[in-house]
Amino acid sequence: MNKIVLFAGAKESKILIEKIASSYVQEAEYYIIYEKEDEITKIEKENFFYYKIPFFAFELYRPLFFKDINKIIVYIKNKKTAEFVINKIKNYSSIVFAKFWENIEIPLQNNIEIIDSIELITNKILDHLPDVPLFARDIGLGIGEILEVEIPPHSVFAYKNPNFIQRWKNIKIAVIYRENKFIIPSRHTLILPNDKLLLIGEPEKLKSFFIESKKNLGAFPAPYGRNIYLLIDMQTDKKTLYNLLKSALFLHRKLKNQKLIIKLINPKLNFKIYKLYKFKNIDIYTDYFSSDYEKTLKNDINIYNIGLVITNNGYFYKYKKTFFDIKIPVFKQGDESIKKCKEFVVLLQDKMLDRIAPSIFDLSFQLNLGINFLEPFIEEKDLKELKEYLEKFAKVYNFKKITFTKTQKNPIIKLKTKENICIIEPFISPPVLKIFQIFNPKIYNAYIMLDKFSQFLIPVK
Fold first, then answer.
1. What domains appear along the chain, each with residue ranges and CATH number?
2. Beta strand residue intervals within 342-382, DSSP E
3. Exposed (0-12), middle (13-18) or buried (19+): which is 311, by Cβ within 10 Å?
4. Sheet of 28-34: strands edge to edge?
5. Residues sharing a CB contact under 8 Å with residue 72, sequence separation 6 or more, in sequence order
6. What number of helices (H) and strands (E) belong to the chain?
7. What pLDDT digit, counting tens, does each position of 75-130 carry?
8. Would you state the pLDDT for residue 112?
9. How far apart (Å, rounded) are the C-alpha atoms in residues 329 and 331?
């Protein structure tokens, strides 16, 4: 039989004792130590034993710990008393310690489990916020494999079948909560707006589902950041400077970013740039102390909540490792203006393309451009599954501007003959020199050979 000691040193102890008594406790004995009558409820059961002993009188209740105690619960609200008790009993059994204070000396031992009341309350409040994922913290592995998510009215998953979500995202809907009732879903069940879904699956896939369930198309550069960032070295020739500025202003108008951040280094007078000061959602910062492009970029990434960095081929390849390391989407301006772009082209590859699918469709939606997925002529199982995934994604968002083109030629050679297109690629490794790409071509480095086109390089986090 299990034997449990409870130090009842809080008025809430009454509730705890009542809940224990109303549960299945016939297989355990409870030894309740208390100081004040108003902090306990005496339940008349044969397996409940009460001892009115001062908590500082350790020698009086010490004999209880020779009864093969399985668990000790310390539920004391006086900080000094709690510290005394935990240090006296720390080596006797498995202990659950209720922590009510920020700073308290608790022994760091494997047999002591701490329940932090402040953290629990904070987590519970977070659980009720609509845009915070609600993971099961104390069930299963506790690593985020169980998630509850509420489906908002605008969600793409509203009025969808659970089987559709399971096939598409490879996650399981265990229960649907609707109007204070729970529903075990079947193949005929529809997910309705405001339903709460209890999901089981890989933590990363659950996080992805949570983000996609809450968003509409038209959020990019979120979730990477809220602002577009352009770093300008004023020593750059005027043509390059103005081309970058035109691209930044165009994307600022089209995308749902909060602000356009323009940082100037090596400053000198330029009336065209300084005219932009009058716009409220364009912030211009001049750095009079730093002339280092790379150092400024690294520093600003942590300051300005950046979701998209704008650059050109020259800066990109000069600081290629830094652009990869910052893990922020990069718009790399090509020889052709972004304004002339009539279509997005995406090379179909199995390297992380599914991870950036939301950003691909989001960019296409906001810039009002179709997507042409270019397929190699060799049919591979992974690419077939990826194509099905992208088709399902387009179907969920009711996205019609999507085509799949199979090519018998090398896709890079085919694309070099095109005009007025833009490339979207997953940014999964630092760029290599062109000579390496020629002799050892990799599909995920194909963008290196397509510099004439403007490109969106999306990192995989």
1. 2-116 (3.40.50.720), 129-214 (3.30.70.1450), 227-329 (3.40.50), 338-459 (3.40.50.620)
2. 343-347, 370-376
3. buried
4. 48-52, 28-34, 2-9, 71-76, 94-99, 112-116
5. 4, 5, 6, 7, 89, 92, 93, 94, 95, 96
6. 15, 21
7. 999 999 999 999 998 888 888 999 888 888 788 887 888 888 877 777 667 666 66
8. 87
9. 7
Per-residue pLDDT tens digits for 353-412: 877 888 898 899 899 999 999 887 666 666 787 888 788 778 766 777 899 988 777 777
Q: How far apart are CA 53 and CA 32, in angstroms?
A: 10
Question: Please, what sign has the CA dihedral across residues 95, 100, 105, 109?
Answer: positive
- Exposed / middle / buried, residue 266 (Cβ in 10 Å: 0-12, 13-18, 19+): middle
> Within 376-440, where are the H helices?
381-396, 411-416, 434-439
Strand partners of residue 74: 7, 97
CB 315 within 8 A of CB 294: no
Residue with tokens 């809907």: 173
> In the structure encoding, which two tokens stand for residue 234, read together?
């004023």
Q: What is the CA radius of gyration of the chain?
A: 30
Query: Which tokens is 235 given?
Result: 């020593």
Q: Which residue has the tokens 């979207």?
A: 424
235-244 per-position pLDDT tens digit: 888 889 899 9
Structure-derived torsion over alpha carbons of residues 107, 113, 119, 121, reported in degrees to the nearest 10: -130
